[in-house]
């Protein structure tokens, strides 16, 4: 079996893979990344090879542990990918080990996903019903603000994969409205705390860092 670096493939914007990129940087995982252009040519390029990749559920992003191993079917779906990496890299330090912590992490993961998807719909369609949907987001942020409280990270003193998911939603909402989190001091401090981690700061200053756009610019009517 030939050896090669693992490969992460996605579009050349933040989207749903930004937390995984950040987690990989934090863990120092040596990997390659394929970034398809976020334009019509990139869409056509991906569609041309999508069904030839050997993926059970062809989609972007995908992750392959060994890109040169024909038996490596790879993994798709962003949340499956980030949790797989959290389990298998860095001695699993970013994946909760107790059942109680895992249940809490996955509950917060669901809240974060639902909240972030409201903003994605707002950007994709830029229509009144989706603008109204965003009014539900403050309720979720109120809950997250209260749950986080004075804790350093979502589950306390230990950083886990779910913190990267929460960070990205905060980042994207702040890109949408820079004043969004003035009323949420705990969430604002959380965001700054993660950005201040040496590994993350180094990544954000590197050429490989993608600051935006947050949503596929070819499909989004509202650009952030």
Automatic annotation (TrEMBL):
Domain of life: Eukaryota
Any one Gene Ontology molecular-function term assigned to this protein's record: glutathione transferase activity
Entry-linked SUPFAM superfamilies: GST C-terminal domain-like, Thioredoxin-like
InterPro entries: Glutathione-S-Trfase_C-like (IPR010987), Glutathione-S-Trfase_C_sf (IPR036282), Glutathione_S-Trfase (IPR040079), Glutathione_S-Trfase_N (IPR004045), GST_C (IPR004046), GST_superfamily (IPR050213), Thioredoxin-like_sf (IPR036249)
Annotated EC: 2.5.1.18
Domain GST C-terminal as annotated: residue spans: 98-218
Recorded catalytic activity of this chain's protein: RX + glutathione = an S-substituted glutathione + a halide anion + H(+)
Domain GST N-terminal, residue spans: 4-93
GO BP term, example: glutathione metabolic process
EC main group: transferase
Entry keywords, A to Z: Transferase
Function: Conjugation of reduced glutathione to a wide number of exogenous and endogenous hydrophobic electrophiles.
Family: Belongs to the GST superfamily. Mu family.
Protein name per the record: glutathione transferase
């Amino acid at each position: 079996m030939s050896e090669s670096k693992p490969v992460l493939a996605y579009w050349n914007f933040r989207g749903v893979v930004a937390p995984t990129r950040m987690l990989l940087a934090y863990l120092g995982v040596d990997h390659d990344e394929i970034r398809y252009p976020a334009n019509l040519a990139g869409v056509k390029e991906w569609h041309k090879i999508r069904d030839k990749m050997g993926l059970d559920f062809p989609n972007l992003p995908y992750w392959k542990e060994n890109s040169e191993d024909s038996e490596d079917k790879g993994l798709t779906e962003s949340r499956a990918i980030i949790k797989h990496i959290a389990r298998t890299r860095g001695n699993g330090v970013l994946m909760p080990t107790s059942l109680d912590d895992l249940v809490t992490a996955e509950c917060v993961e669901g809240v974060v996903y639902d909240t972030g998807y409201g903003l994605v719909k707002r950007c994709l369609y830029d229509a009144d019903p989706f603008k109204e949907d965003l009014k539900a987001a403050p309720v979720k942020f109120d809950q997250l603000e209260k749950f986080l409280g004075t804790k350093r990270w979502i589950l306390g003193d230990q950083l886990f994969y779910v913190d990267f998911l929460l960070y990205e939603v905060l980042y994207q909402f702040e890109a949408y409205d820079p004043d969004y989190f003035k009323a949420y001091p705990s969430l604002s401090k959380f965001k700054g705390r993660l950005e201040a981690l040496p590994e993350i700061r180094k990544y954000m200053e590197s050429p490989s860092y993608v600051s935006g756009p947050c949503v596929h610019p070819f499909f989004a009517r509202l650009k952030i």
